[in-house]
Amino acid sequence: MRGTQSLLGRRELFRGGLALGATALWTPGVFAELVATARQTEGPFYPDKMPLDTDNDLLVINDSLTPAVGEITHLSGRVLDRKGDPVRNAFVEIWQVDNNAVYLHSGDNRRRDQRDVNFQGYGRFLTDSKGHYYFRTIKPVPYPGRTPHIHVAVSKGGKRVLTTQLYVKGHPQNARDRLFLSVPAESRATVLGDFQPIPDSSLGELAVNFDVVMGRTAPDEGPSLGIGMPEYQARRGRRARNR
């Protein structure tokens, strides 16, 4: 598994302002607060078996020489509380379909034989002292019944504290997507990202910023304590306890 340090140079670049998108929105008033990122379902395809590599570069698995297919996208942002303070030592997870619209999940049988085996499908990153995170992935593509999106989850203190989805700003399928439309109109800007071309990129790379604002208090001290339990596992545990 490659360390995230190899990608920090790129992350610093995008902090400089190239990445655009769902930057945090303030509510008006004397005691202004940031608008919390809208919550969304985890969906059925959180990986049921983790890839061999779970770092923040989803384009290359371990030391492979063959990258994944798709529009290279640099996804960066910050995890913040409602007051605008950074949330450090939080684990940010992302997962999404590959360029052929196939998830890294045993239950996604639609086009399993077409899955891009060079796409990691899932990644995680521990926020720094200023709440920053960074991923290199591909621009999401639609699959039957859904507009393009990237699943995002945040864990703090060993507990899952937020699950949401990042959508492509201006994509025509957003207007027909049931889950996107379930977000109140006044909160939709919190889950939209503006995927912009990076000037002078010979590979046609894109950049998008996605600030995640926690709607509940998250302690900012102490160790990360790992990844929180996915929703499907939590539901399974509740059912077992209720039997």
Automatic annotation (TrEMBL):
SUPFAM superfamilies registered for this protein in UniProt: Aromatic compound dioxygenase
Source superkingdom: Bacteria
Xref: Gene3D superfamilies: Aromatic compound dioxygenase (2.60.130.10)
Keyword Oxidoreductase set for record: yes
The keyword Transcription regulation belongs to this UniProt entry's keyword annotation: no
The protein, known as: Protocatechuate 3,4-dioxygenase beta chain
Record region (Disordered): 219-243
EC number: 1.13.11.3
InterPro entries to which the protein is assigned, alphabetical: 3_4-PCD, Intradiol_dOase_C, Intradiol_dOase_core, Intradiol_RC_Dioxygenase, TAT_signal
Transmembrane region(s): none
UniProt keyword annotations, A-Z: Dioxygenase, Oxidoreductase
Listed GO MF terms: ferric iron binding; protocatechuate 3,4-dioxygenase activity
Protein family membership: Belongs to the intradiol ring-cleavage dioxygenase family.
Native source organism of the sequence: Kolteria novifilia
Record domain Intradiol ring-cleavage dioxygenases: where: 42-213
